[in-house]
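Q: My labmate handed me this sequence with no annotations at all. I'd like to see what the chain might look like in three dimensions before we decide whether it's worth expressing. Could you predict it?
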Amino acid sequence: MEIDRTKGEVWVFAEQEDGVLSDVPRELLGKGRELADTLGVKLAAVLMGAGVEPLSKELFEAGADKVHLVDDPALKVFRSKAYRHAFVELIKECGPQIVIFGATHMGRDLAPAVASQLGCGLTADCTELQIGEFTDKRGACQGAEPKVVPGVLQQIRPAFGGNIIATIVNPYNWPQMATVREGVMKPLERMPGRTGELVKHDSKLDGVEIPVEVLEIVRRHSSINLKGSRIIVAGGAGVGSKENFKLLHDLADALGGAVGGSRAAVDLGYCEHERQIGQTGVTVRPALFISCGISGAVQHLAGMQDSAKIIAINTDKDAPVFKIAHYGIVGDLNVVIPKMIKAIKG
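A: Here is what I predict for the chain of 346 residues:
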């Protein structure tokens, strides 16, 4: 679709459930503000649901200049076809140049469906977004001058199992779309009383058959809140066993922190999947991160490297985790951790 490259807005999907915004839209608006200011365009949030107009106030205070509201009883609960149809029609009507979703269950369902319908690209699980230029050299072998496309969204994410960092661009088939991993973008400071422009749109769902009916919603609330923990003790395959993980819980209890794990620890059954930190888990930024028996694969480091202070314990002095640690302890965690607990309690 034709989009005005100088005026198209930057959009953030404002994911909500039961009239409550998740943390993800606030994180995305923080990055969206940076992108929109670089391009000199407005930052807008797309808010969909039933009876959700009051949430626009929170979105303005989180940094949105504009809120595109699609309010319809058919959108009360998330159903892929209904949301996809309404979102696609909204994009056709308004022509944004960038659309960002959270890499949540909802975002990972909705974003590819919208991109497929529009025939545009989508980069999943981005860890960084920037505005830059793209030099198209495809005609260089025929003697043509390279074409420079300015104001392109550079979508950055780990690739090939985390062994490289790829920068992906979509210079032609706009809008440029990406999903962003939870926790990797920093929200702006809340600005109480800040207002913006509220634009109401028709869902255009009349006559659209929605083949799914939601009969019941069953939720299981987790008691694990790694993202909100200021201190995290995390273990990897080097912990050795599920029983040894109790040492990490003892250290976390002494510090008033939470326990996390690498993917290797989760795969080995040492801890629950909810505790997984890294590219395929949660991203955390605690004040203190204690890494125990974790070698430091790129996938794991992507989820914790922005911690304010990192202490690494590992028997391998050449473990990659020591490259980002502020303090490193080369030793057996079964010896080191009890000494730490004793010192803390003393």
